[in-house]
Amino acid sequence: MSAHPRMAAHVRHATAWGALLAFLLVGAASLGARIEPFEVGVRALAAGVVGWLVVWAAAVQIGRAVVRAEVSALRAEREADAEEEPAGA
């Protein structure tokens, strides 16, 4: 799937947003709990890494399913085109 340009770009964008969202949510929650600033940073960074990994795994699975569906649709289209061609041509 890494050779598929659209899917690779989608995975990169999804993982970036997942990491950023996890970082911000955990950072905000930790600040709201009045935790020391250094600990807030550590927790937010760890959450960003975990968020990146979770979203990466989901994005790769979704991307694989999309690529498989595209290949199946292309095969069906080619088979339909082959059946429509006259036998003598």
Jot down its keywords:
89 residues; single chain; mainly alpha; rod-shaped; 2 helices
Q: How would you concisely characterize the structure shown here?
A:
By secondary structure, this protein is mainly alpha-helical. The protein contains two helices and no strands. The radius of gyration is 22 Å and the shape is rod-shaped.
Would you give an account of this structure?
- It is a single chain.
- The protein has 89 residues and is mainly α.
- It has one domain (5-78).
- The chain contains 2 helices and no strands.
Q: Per the principal axes of the C-alpha atoms, what is the gross shape?
A: rod-shaped
Strand segment count: 0
Mean pLDDT equals 91
Share of helix among residues?
Answer: over 70%
End-to-end gap: 37 Å
Query: In terms of per-residue confidence, which ranges show pLDDT below 50 for 5 or more consecutive residues?
Result: none
Which helices and strands appear, and what pairs or packs with what?
Elements: H1 5-32, H2 37-84
